[in-house]
Amino acid sequence: MKRLMLCGFMCSLVLAWAALAMGEGIPWQGKPGDAADKPAGEAAKPAVDLEKELPPLLYGRAIRPILLARDAALKQEDLYNKEMEKPDDKRDTKRAVGFKEHAAKGYLAASIKAKQAVAIVPEKPQKDAVVAQYEKPMRNKAVETNLWLADQAAKEHDLRTAVGYYLRVLPTAPENATAKEQIEKIKKDVEQAIADRKAGKNTGGGGGGSDSKMDFTGKDQRDPVPGTERPDREQPDWKKKGGLR
């Protein structure tokens, strides 16, 4: 009887050890939390192919206008690069800035058309795809290009034009810290320059026009693209001032 009880006890120990080994994880067994244990929904989802998912007519109506605006912007970027590749004595930096300006407009147009497309496509995954593939990237490119243009203008002390570019950023990215901080900085610099001028100090700073009438709100903003819609004053010749950086 005692032998039977001892055998039963030993069998219980063996089973308990086996269960413990399984709980600790056997070398050839995957550990909890491995990819095999993850639900299938957690795997990376492939990008939605809008051209395949949308009917041809709807794709043409919703997506084609985005692509046209984006391609127009990319063409302007290409023209800018070609202009900047020219030798110094043949390079027209004012024209190059104009290409960048039109690229920014193209990116913004593509972003706006993408927003319109979101309202047209029927399914939520398709709407999310339009935002991820077109609306957000194009908006970011417009912001990035306008910030670059503003920075170039500020380096050449053309503060009025710099503010104009920074103001273009805020409608699409109202919380953009760079644009807001730079507008505030230029505003303070201009106010200080005016105060110094009234006090009889010559600071030597340039503001690209009448600093006291500079618009920091965008309400009276005009197009700052060199040589297009600013006939009221001479455009800065950035080529003579050292060119783009």
Walk me through what this model shows.
- 60% of the residues lie in helices and 0% in strands.
- The protein has helices at 2-24, 50-53, 56-62, 64-84, 93-120, 124-155, 159-169, 177-198.
- It has eight helices and no strands.
- It is mostly helical and 245 residues long.
- The protein has a domain at 50-176.
Give a quick precis of the structure.
This protein is mainly α and 245 residues long. The chain is built from eight helices and no strands. It is 60% helix and 0% strand.
Please outline the helices and strands.
Elements: H1 2-24, H2 50-53, H3 56-62, H4 64-84, H5 93-120, H6 124-155, H7 159-169, H8 177-198
Annotation keywords:
single chain; mainly alpha; 245 residues
SSE arrangement, N to C: HHHHHHHH
Strand content: under 5%
**Class inferred from helices and paired strands:** mainly alpha
Give the termini distance in whole angstroms. 96 Å
- Gyration radius, to the nearest Å? 31 Å
Biggest sheet descriptor = none
The number of E-state strands comes to: 0
Q: Tell me roughly what share of residues is in helical segments.
A: 55-70%
Low-confidence stretches: 13-42, 222-242
Gross geometry: elongated
Helix segment tally: 8
How much is the average pLDDT?
Answer: 77
